[in-house]
Amino acid sequence: MHEQCKGGFTYTVETLDKDGNLIDREQRHNVMPKEVLNYVANAAFKQGPQFGQWFAGLFTGNYTPTGEETMAALPSVAQEFTGYEGAGRPAIVFGAVANGRVDNITSPIELTFTQDVEVRGGFISNGSGKGSTSGLCASVVRFSSPKRPGVGGVLRILVAQEFFS
Predict the structure, then answer these.
(1) Please, are residues 7 and 29 in contact by the beta-carbon 8 Å criterion?
(2) Residue 120 lies in a domain
(3) What element of type H or E holds 72?
(4) What is the pTM of this model?
(5) Which residue of 3, 9, 10, 112 shows the fewest CB atoms closer than 10 Å?
(6) How far apart, in whole angstroms, are the C-alpha atoms of residue 56 and residue 73?
(7) Which residues of the chain have pLDDT under 70?
(8) Does residue 73 fall inside a structural domain?
(9) Continuous segment of H or E residues that includes residue 37
(10) Residue 8 domain flag
């Protein structure tokens, strides 16, 4: 009598060079760490705290998600990348929830790189500060190949979260 409802984020990541030309596009499913699974159950069924704002981050390290991630350690072990425009991690602006799904399709994240670096993955947190170790880690994904838009290039990120049984 123990069936699991699978859920998680799907990332669509597009790499554009400084002239706006599409270099690469991929779609990857994430790992949702245990701490956020507990948060979802607590917020939905136990009237626990709820966080209305979430932020995207990137990492450069050779890191493979395990499901045990916490924001206390992730920025260090995965080597968070902060060489993009803006003072903090970009906010994810989700649209309406429908059919067990929510996404940012109408407001994609666009990160303009200020450094020529390869990024290997991304994450979602409710902590907004670049390099911040506070808050919850809601998702971690490793890209199938490193992304390198170059200085002035853009990494466009769409995320969708859905539950299905």
Answers:
(1) no
(2) yes
(3) none
(4) 0.90
(5) 3
(6) 16
(7) 1-7, 164-165
(8) yes
(9) helix 34-45
(10) no
